[in-house]
Write a structure and sequence with these properties.
single chain; about 220 residues; about 35% helix; 8 strands; alpha/beta
C-alpha cells in the first residue's frame, strides 16, 4: 500500500510565529509542509514568496512542497529552488503549452516537480506530461483561499488520476488539496490519493499531533 503522507498547509498557521509553527507541526508528525504561494493575479489572494520559505527552511527537515499559484511560474522557479523547496508544483492553467518545459526546468534545478489541475480541468490535460512528474496535485476547491468546502465531484478525477499514474509504472505521488476533513479523508484515500493537504482541519486544533494521526489512520 502506498504510504499516506500528511501535508499541513502553512497558509493556516500563525504567521507571526511561522518558524515555531513549522517546527512544532513537524514534531507533531507532518510528513510534508505545503506552502501555498499566491500572487494576487493567478488567484485573488496574496500569501508569501521565496524569502519566506528561505527564512523558515531551517525550522524543519520535512519535505517542503511549494505550490505555485502564480502567473508565468517559470520566471520564479529558480528562486523557490534556491529558497529550499524540495518539490515545486505548477498549474496547468498557468502554464498551458509551456507545462512540460516548466516541469523539465524545475528538474534541471535538482528539485522534484509536479503538475496541478483545478477542479474543472480534466485529467486528460496533463496526460502528456505525467511521465515527467514526481507528483500530481488535484485541487478539490478552487485555489486562492483556505477554509473552503471539499467539492465531491473531484472524487472520480482522483480515481482517474490514480489509474493514469499507475499506467506509467512510476513512483508518482497523488496529492489532494482543499476542504479535507476527518469526514472525507477516507473517500479521497480510497479513490487513490496518498498525499493529504489539510489546513484549518489541522491548525485549528489544540492537539495537532492527534488530528495528524487520525487523518493518517482513518
Amino acid at each position: 500500500m502506498r504510504k499516506i503522507k500528511i501535508a499541513p498547509s502553512i497558509l493556516s498557521a500563525d504567521f507571526a510565529r511561522a518558524g515555531q509553527e513549522i517546527e512544532q507541526i513537524t514534531k507533531d508528525g507532518a510528513d510534508v509542509l505545503h506552502l501555498d504561494v499566491m500572487d494576487g493575479s493567478f488567484v485573488k489572494n496574496i500569501s508569501f514568496g521565496p524569502k519566506f520559505i528561505q527564512e523558515v527552511r531551517p525550522y524543519s527537515k520535512a519535505t517542503f512542497d511549494a505550490h505555485l499559484m502564480i502567473v508565468n511560474p517559470w520566471n520564479y522557479i529558480k528562486q523557490f529552488a534556491n529558497a529550499g523547496a524540495d518539490i515545486i508544483t505548477v498549474h496547468y492553467e498557468a502554464c498551458g503549452d509551456k507545462l512540460k518545459e516548466t516541469l523539465l526546468a524545475i528538474k534541471d534545478l535538482g528539485v522534484k516537480c509536479g503538475a496541478v489541475i483545478n477542479p474543472d480541468t480534466p485529467v486528460e490535460k496533463i496526460e502528456n506530461v505525467i511521465e515527467y512528474c514526481d507528483m500530481l496535485l488535484l485541487m478539490s476547491v478552487y485555489p486562492g483561499f483556505g477554509g473552503q468546502k471539499f467539492i465531491p465531484d473531484v472524487l472520480p478525477k482522483i480515481a482517474e488520476a490514480r489509474k493514469l499514474i499507475d499506467s506509467t509504472g512510476k513512483d508518482i505521488d497523488l496529492e489532494i488539496d482543499g476542504g479535507i476533513t476527518k469526514e472525507n479523508v477516507r473517500l479521497v484515500k480510497d479513490a487513490g490519493a496518498n498525499v493529504i493537504v489539510a489546513g484549518s482541519t489541522i491548525f485549528n486544533q489544540i492537539d495537532r499531533a492527534k488530528i495528524i494521526r487520525e487523518l493518517r489512520e482513518i
